[in-house]
Structure formats: structure tokens, C-alpha cells
From TrEMBL:
Residues 362-444 form the GH3 middle domain. Belongs to the IAA-amido conjugating enzyme family. It holds the Pfam family GH3_M. PANTHER family: GH3 DOMAIN-CONTAINING PROTEIN (PTHR31901:SF9). Keywords: Ligase. It comes from Morus alba var. multicaulis. This is Indole-3-acetic acid amido synthetase. InterPro entries: GH3, GH3_C, GH3_M.
Length: 611
């Protein structure tokens, strides 16, 4: 593997020229594919359909080798995960025939979206990694138009791998980023000043999350002056790193002072890699100590990494709840959302990365997949409630034909064998780059609660509450009303449920019963939530707050005073609006937390015997 030079003085002489040339090429590519969005999309669809002409799925629907849009739209149904689950199951169980794709399925990418409480499995093929890498390669050329000189320093990015499992048929199932970081595209990347990170690959690839985080922070601290940008994938992950620093800065400081790595870091590859960066530096240790021991941590990012120009994290969608915290820690540095992607497919890039988070839009790159758009109307009184327009078989719109201001649900056809698959994201057309639309991310359909990668919908929440309420039966008690709130003021954030009780029995309910209710809710939630609690520790214990009788009437009065219709009023199953949260909090009588972590094991429940 080509070794990345340690300092900029060792850069090849012509690197600057090469860099400019590479940047120009990337921008030219964006110009080209966006100017010809419709033609590119036609070509992409034809490529996908001709290479997969003989797969079982397309034959089953009678496509008969056609590769044109009209026939495709006429015969291939618009689907959700549940529709292809039987096909996915066959592949997972070891059927290697051409079911969805003519190319061998190389692995499954486990989506943070769930079906039946388990992560969705997205098939992928070897060549998809190249397509994903291409999207990554566009990000810095775009960024460098707005922030020059980024090639002169490093990026401090907190990147992690997660556990993986094997399907009964022997395919690996893991999150897309784990697959990417472990791939040669990432590990053996040729030297590029734009992928020059403070974290050694070994630290990123360390499966132990404590050791990984510790060593990445330590390396970031050791190279603090070289850092020009900081980030993580999602805002929640970046905040977790700051929290870790708050807890562990004394030990980290000691390592910087002595040049000896904390013996708790036992992974030999990590020790080796960190050893190449860590030098005794008492002056730096004094500096870190003086900054971290100050009472206020406001602006800690700019204090410890003084040359940082921006924070690169996704803060669109549910992650926007973290903006105030990030602003606080970074003293208002620009928050940059560079891309929009998923396990199914990488979608697009933000061509104006310095726009405020609320102004961010993503330009879908037409070569990534074939995109269609299902018009949606969101009903105003259901939070995140999305209804499709009345007719069942509404015409899906092509990428080049979407209308400014209209909202759509994204539907993709991928090279890896998803055909007209509803991703579940609602997007709004915010503008155009040449002929390609730019979308702001509106919401994930039906999701009510999210702290990190978890996405809990109303039905899951309802079932979880129903299960928990069983604990109250012996006390002749019930939950008459409930709502929920994603509390991200704690680090990590946690789910809060507000319960109004209806009590018929006279025996008081002991706190342990409510704690059992908390745990039962957690046990009933999907595996992504439980993984966040158990393995990633990115979600804190669930809390139930008991509110006074009459609280939910007050909530209704409030909604009606703000214009809600009394006939149509439904208790929101999730609240976000600060005055409503305040109203609920002002009437809390008791609070209970989940006493321990719920159960979670990697992989799907039904595979456990095979692991
Ligand atoms: P996963 O398949 O688990 O990687 O999750 C992909 C989902 O994360 C997408 O479908 C979106 O709902 C969400 N997501 C990804 N990128 C962004 C972004 N830039 N802004 C908002 N949400 C995003």
C-alpha cells in the first residue's frame, strides 16, 4: 500500500498541478452529467436492464428484455422492502441463481431502516464500491471551490466500523460504511491530500469502539495544528467524540505528555499505528489541559484545533436537532453537509456546502442509479405523516421532470438489483443544477423518533408501549395517553415517553414496575435502536415521565389555540415543538429510566443459530 507522506514537505512536486487538474475534472463531470441529466438517466436504466435482462425478478414481471423507460414503467411495480423480502431471504440463505442481479451479490448492506424489527438487507455487487468511491471523490473538489488550501492540512474525522454478521448462506451483512472502510478503495487509497486524515486506518478499523475512539482522538490531539477540518458522518457521532473527550481528556493528556500510549489500548495494530504519531509533547499537553480544565467548553473545537475551518457532519433531517450543540462546541463554525447517501445507493452531493443547514440541498448525480419520484402531500396535522396522492398508481416523475417546490418520495432502480424501490425519504425540489434537480431533505416517512442511526416509526412505538403496559395490569392501571420526545440535550440522547395514567386500583405502583416498562419498551424496539443502546452506546436509557392527570387535555387546548381543528385533533405520538415539550415537562410527577440495556446480538434474530 502506498504510504501517505507524513508532512506536506514530502508531497510530490507536481501535486498541486495534479490536484488542480483532478478538481477540474471532478467539477467537469458534475457539469456534464447534470447538463445531460435525462440522457444519462435513460442510459443508466438501459444499462441496468440490459445487464440484468435474464434475472428472475424482471422475467417474473414480464419485462422480456426491454430496456426502455415506457415498458419498464408499465410492467415493473413500485415496491417496498417487504415485496422483495422473499427474494432477499433466498439470497441470504445461499441461493446464488440470478434472482435480482446478473452479477454475483457480494454482500448485504444492512440498512438502518428496519422491517419486522430487523435491519433491512440491501444486496450489493462488487462494482458498486467504485460508484460510491466516485461520489466521495467529488466532495473535496466541490469544497475546495469555497474553502481553498484544504490540501495543506488534515481532516480529523471520527470514523468507525460496526459489527458484521454472516447470513445462513455465508454472505457478509454489515453497514455500508463498514464495508467501505474495510474495502481496498479506502484502505489502499493512493496518497491524496484530501483523504489525509489524522486517524490512522488501524484506528478506524479497530472493532473495539473505545479503543477506536480513544486512539482517533489522541491522534487528532497530537496533530492539532495540522487539522483544517473536523467531522464524522452524522452530527450525533461527532458530539459523541466531544463527550468522550470531556470524560477522558486527562488520560489522553497524559499520553501526549509522556509519549506512552494508555495500556488500555491493547490492539497491536492500533498501538503500532498510534506509536508512529505519538511523541512526548509536554507543551501540547499543558495546552490541552489548560483548555479542557476551563469550566466552559464553549468553542472547544476551535480552541483545541485552532486552524479548523468547518465541521463536516450531516445535520439535515433528524440530525438538525444537534445544530445548537455543534454551534456551541465549534463557536459557530460552518456546519457542512456534503452528501446524501444510503445503503441502497449513494444519491448526491451538496454543491453549496457553505449554505446554512436549513438551506442545504443535494444534487442527485444521475449516474448513480435510475431515479424516479412519487409526488407526496404531507398532511399538516400529522407529524411526519406522509400520504401519497389519492390514486394508487400515481405516475412517477423522472429526475429531469420534477417541479420546483414539490415534495416527492424517492424511488430507485440500482445496478445491484433493486427495481423501483421506495427508499422512504421525502425530498423537496429546491432548485436545479443545469438540468438536474437539487433536493432538500424533508423527512424519513413515518419516522417519529431518532437519536443516532435508529429510526423508530409510530407503529413500532405503539407496539412497544402496548407490551410495556402489560406490567400495569396487576395494578388495575393503564396508560390513557402517551407521546414521545427525542431528548438530545443529554449526551448520548435518549427517548422520553410521557405517560398519563388512568388508575383504578388502590395499590401504589412501585418504581421497579415503571422501570420494567422502560426496559420492555426498549426490548420491543427494533435492532438498530438496541444496537445503539448496547454496542454503539449512542443512545441513553429510555425514560418514562408520568404526567399529571389532564395534561393531554392541556396539550389539545394548546394545539387548538394554535389553529388545529377540534374534530380532527389526534394526540401527536411524538413532540418536537419546544413550547409543547415545556408544557409536558412542567406537569411531570415522576421519572423512571430503563435499569439496564435491552438484549441485542449482531445479525438477524433468525440467524443466531448459524453465527
Ligand atoms: P442507511 O441506509 O442506514 O445508510 O440510511 C440512509 C438514510 O439516512 C437515508 O435514506 C436518509 O433517510 C438518511 N440520510 C442519509 N444522508 C442524509 C442527509 N445528508 N441528510 C438527511 N438524511 C440523510
Amino acid at each position: 500500500m502506498p504510504e501517505a507522506p507524513k508532512t506536506s514537505s514530502k508531497l510530490p512536486e507536481n501535486y498541486n498541478y495534479n490536484l488542480q487538474e483532478k478538481n477540474a475534472k471532478a467539477l467537469e463531470f458534475i457539469e456534464d452529467v447534470t447538463a445531460n441529466a435525462d440522457e444519462v438517466q435513460k442510459r443508466v436504466l438501459a444499462e441496468i436492464l440490459s445487464s440484468n435482462a435474464n434475472v428472475e425478478y424482471l422475467k417474473r414481471h414480464g419485462l422480456n428484455g426491454h430496456t426502455d423507460r415506457d415498458t419498464f414503467k408499465k410492467v415493473i411495480p413500485v415496491i417496498t422492502y417487504e415485496d422483495i423480502q422473499p427474494d432477499i431471504k433466498r439470497i441470504a440463505n445461499g441461493d446464488t441463481s440470478q434472482i435480482l442481479c446478473s452479477k454475483p451479490i457480494s454482500e448485504f448492506l444492512t440498512s438502518s431502516g428496519t422491517s419486522g424489527g430487523e435491519r433491512k438487507l440491501m444486496p450489493t455487487i462488487e462494482e458498486e464500491m467504485g460508484r460510491r468511491s466516485l461520489l466521495y471523490s467529488l466532495l473535496m473538489p466541490v469544497m475546495s471551490q469555497f474553502v481553498p488550501g484544504l490540501e495543506k492540512g488534515k481532516g480529523m474525522y471520527f470514523l468507525f466500523i460496526k459489527s458484521e454478521a454472516k447470513t445462513p448462506g455465508g454472505l457478509v451483512a454489515r453497514p455500508v460504511l463498514t464495508a467501505y472502510y474495510k474495502s481496498s478503495h479506502f484502505r489502499n487509497r493512493p496518497y491524496d491530500p484530501y483523504t489525509n486524515y489524522t486517524s490512522p486506518n488501524e484506528a478506524i478499523l479497530c472493532p473495539d469502539s473505545y479503543q477506536s475512539m480513544y486512539s482517533q482522538l489522541l491522534c487528532g490531539l497530537c496533530q492539532n495544528k495540522e487539522v483544517l477540518r473536523v467531522g464524522a458522518v452524522f452530527a450525533s457521532g461527532f458530539i459523541r467524540a466531544i463527550r468522550f473527550l470531556e470524560k477522558h481528556w486527562r488520560v489522553l493528556c497524559n499520553d501526549v505528555r509522556t509519549g506512552n500510549l494508555n495500556p488500555q489500548i491493547t490492539d497491536p495494530a492500533v498501538r503500532d499505528a498510534v506509536g508512529k504519531i505519538l511523541q512526548p509533547d509536554p507543551k501540547l499537553a499543558d495546552f490541552i489541559e489548560s483548555e479542557c480544565s476551563k469550566e466552559s467548553w464553549q468553542g472547544i473545537i476551535t480552541r483545541l484545533w485552532p486552524n479548523t475551518k468547518y465541521v463536516d457532519v450531516i445535520v439535515t433531517g433528524t440530525m438538525s436537532q444537534y445544530i445548537p450543540t455543534l454551534d456551541y462546541y465549534s463557536n459557530g463554525l460552518p456546519l457542512v453537509c456534503t452528501m446524501y447517501a444510503s445503503s441502497e445507493c449513494y444519491f448526491g452531493v451538496n454543491l453549496n456546502p457553505l449554505y446554512e443547514p436549513c438551506e442545504v440541498s443535494y444534487t442527485l448525480i444521475p449516474t448513480m442509479a435510475y431515479f424516479e419520484f412519487l409526488p407526496v402531500n404531507r398532511s399538516n396535522n400529522s407529524i411526519n405523516g406522509v400520504t401519497n396522492n389519492s390514486k394508487e398508481h400515481l405516475e412517477l416523475v423522472n429526475l429531469a421532470d420534477v417541479k420546483l417546490g414539490q415534495e416527492y418520495e424517492l424511488v430507485v432502480t440500482t445496478y445491484a438489483g433493486l427495481y423501483r424501490y421506495r427508499v422512504g425519504d421525502v425530498l423537496r425540489v429546491a432548485g436545479f443544477k443545469n438540468k438536474a434537480p437539487q433536493f432538500s431533505f424533508i423527512c424519513r416517512k413515518n419516522v417519529v423518533l431518532s437519536i443516532d442511526a435508529d429510526k423508530t416509526d409510530e407503529v413500532e412505538l405503539q407496539n412497544a408501549v402496548k407490551n410495556a403496559v402489560n406490567h400495569l395490569v396487576p395494578f388495575d392501571a393503564n396508560v390513557s395517553e402517551y407521546t414521545s420526545y427525542a431528548n438530545t440535550t443529554t449526551i448520548p440522547g435518549h427517548y422520553v415517553l410521557y405517560w398519563e395514567m388512568s388508575l383504578k386500583g388502590s395499590t401504589p405502583i412501585p418504581p421497579s414496575v415503571f422501570e420494567d416498562c422502560c426496559l420492555t419498551i426498549e426490548e420491543s424496539l427494533n435492532s438498530v435502536y438496541r444496537q445503539g443502546r448496547v454496542s454503539d452506546k449512542s443512545i441513553g436509557p429510555l425514560e418514562i415521565k408520568i404526567v399529571e392527570a389532564g395534561t393531554f387535555d392541556k396539550l389539545m387546548d394548546y394545539a387548538i389555540s394554535r389553529g388545529a381543528s377540534i374534530n380532527q385533533y389526534k394526540t401527536p405520538r411524538c413532540v418536537k415543538f419546544a413550547p409543547i415539550v415545556e408544557l409536558l415537562n412542567s406537569r411531570v410527577e415522576a421519572e423512571y429510566f430503563s435499569p439496564k440495556c435491552p438484549k441485542w446480538v449482531p445479525g438477524h434474530k433468525q440467524w443466531c443459530n448459524h453465527d
